[in-house]
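Give me the fold.
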Amino acid sequence: MTRSQTTIPFHDLTFIDDVAKLRDVEARWKSFLKEVRRSAQTADLEAGRITEDDLVQPYNLVTDTDLRRIKRRAMRLLERVHSSTGMYHLSEEHRARLTPLRGGVPVAHLATEHEADEIAAALHAEMPWMAPATEEVWRGLRASARDGLPGVRFDPLVLVGSPGIGKSHWARRLAHHLSVPTTKIEATGEPAAFSLVGLQKGWGSASPGKLVQTVLRERHGGPLVIVDEVEKSDEVYSNKGTRHTLTDALLPLLERMTARDWQCPFFQVRLDMSWVNWVLTANSRDGLPEPLQSRCVVLDLPDLTPGQLRAFAVTEGTRRGLPDPALAALIEVFDRCGVPNTRLTLRTVSRMLDRAVALTHQPVLN
């Protein structure tokens, strides 16, 4: 599904092609000065102000003092040029990595509230039990279209519910309908704060975070970031005792005002992350930091019923193109209680669908 896009500036960097090297500037200015003095000397000779004996040889027209002055001025010029780019502190390699940002980057755009209605309707048809989350996003999308915003925005969400009810799957389907890229952070895996925003240069494992990497890779300024099991994220301490938490990394990004002028720890440049949208998931409210809850809409979602799982299997199986006999066999599993209800989750059903698709495309042996 393709949606219209708007290009936003995203940064205040200046990309200057083929900035001259110091030696090239020096050579050009030296040549210019020599030509000016040669022309002046020729004019003086023709006017009779000097004689042939007064002529200075071409190789002496520019003195060592002149060369030192040229070098100082060339260095000051290039320093001002590079400083104006906002990337003076970066190596040539790192400047090259930022070239996807040249000219700004696109964000998804909704021209009418009707488009927001279509997205919400499609999402609700796929996963009706996620109605509270879909409704919250729907309001944000309608406001984005109504206010004529260049991109789409909705309040950051924390989806609280039992494992396997489809919180992350719903977020990915939302991204699909919005036509935006996604990136996922596992709060219980690697140090989540560093995984999200990156590490500044000087650390042994310094690199940009997944957020910036996604923007650069996808050339898109409004990805959807999914943070799984956010309530279980741990604190990380550096060798100097500095404390780093996922919450600390998230807070400036969840606030639109501060996200607009967010500084990447790795590249040390300011980027407009205010068009990034956030879906955080948790299995319970226990452990959810209060500052995080105050900046997000926290939604408690119920467990799925067997009927809802059956309906999901039908909808998802149809979307995946399962033939009718395979789909009928899958539905019979539900109708005959072939799998105990206590074991059924959205993950279980998704694996059943994966298996059904694999069997459908398996070659027939003679």
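Residues 22-90 form one domain.
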